[in-house]
Write a structure and sequence with these properties.
With 240 residues, the chain is of the alpha/beta class. Helix content is 49%, strand content 12%. The strands form two sheets. A four-stranded parallel beta sheet has the order 3-4-5-6, with helices on both faces. Strand 4, helix 4 and strand 5 form a beta-alpha-beta unit. The longest helix is centred in the middle third of the chain and has 29 residues.
């Protein structure tokens, strides 16, 4: 987006990482922890005019439900779902007044396909998909676009990469952070409702899963989904 002339406002919890990113592109940084109840609204106020919102905040929330504390559940919902809703609410009015703008929500293929040991994470990502679809219809006549991006396993950066070396089943591949970035830009430029970012087989599976969830679950068991997600949860636990 910076290469296309956008002025960026970069936000996250890690000030050093934000500063490193800001050195590569024009813009400013705002440090914020969106798990805090008032943080999303304060962030929107501090940012001022927002033409394009890319809401990418997310926490793993992986593991058996009984292994997660209530505070773990609350934090995952706050970051993965509530923060996106509040940020969108805060910027919609200014976008409506200008009759322009775009909201991009970064969900996950886990927002279309459920997996064991991911009940909380799945719930937040399924919820984000529903929110994006409904909001797109609400804003259709106001000239404001809404898109949702659904990444699969992303190498080199992000939750999957940070979980350590994970052995994926055969025929399950990864995508790059650049693939996600390209999808975000394409969604904004063409006002695309949803874009899956994953190899072909995973994209097919994500479209099949909502139609036949029981069969999809059986296929996942055959591919060893329980072991895979257990490894992911263990890696993410070590990063906390």
């Amino acid at each position: 987006m910076s290469r296309r002339g956008a002025y960026l406002i970069l936000t996250g919890r890690n000030k050093t990482a934000l500063e490193d990113t800001a050195r590569m592109c024009s813009g400013e940084i705002i440090v914020a922890d969106l798990a805090e109840p008032e943080a999303p609204a304060k962030l929107a106020e501090a940012a001022g005019r927002i033409d394009i919102l890319v809401a990418n905040a997310g926490l793993p929330g992986s593991g058996l439900l009984t292994d997660l504390s209530v505070s773990d559940i609350d934090r995952a919902i706050a970051v993965n779902l509530r923060s996106h809703m509040v940020l969108a609410r805060q910027v919609i009015e200014q976008s409506r007044e200008r009759r322009s703008g775009h909201l991009v929500f970064v969900s996950s293929l886990s927002g279309k396909t459920a997996a064991p040991r991911s009940s909380v994470y799945n719930a937040t990502k399924f919820g984000l998909r529903g929110f994006g679809l409904a909001l797109r219809e609400e804003l259709r006549s106001d000239g404001v676009g809404v898109s949702t991006i659904f990444p699969g396993f992303i190498r080199d950066a992000g939750m999957f990469a940070d979980s350590g070396p994970i052995r994926l089943p055969r025929f399950v591949g990864t995508s790059s952070p650049e693939d996600v970035a390209d999808a975000v830009v394409r969604a904004v430029r063409k006002n695309i409702c949803e874009i899956d970012v994953a190899p072909f087989g995973m994209r097919v599976g994500s479209r099949f899963a909502p139609i036949a969830p029981s069969l999809s679950a059986a296929v996942q068991r055959w591919f060893g989904a329980d072991r895979l997600v257990a490894d992911l949860a263990a890696g993410q636990l070590n990063k906390r």
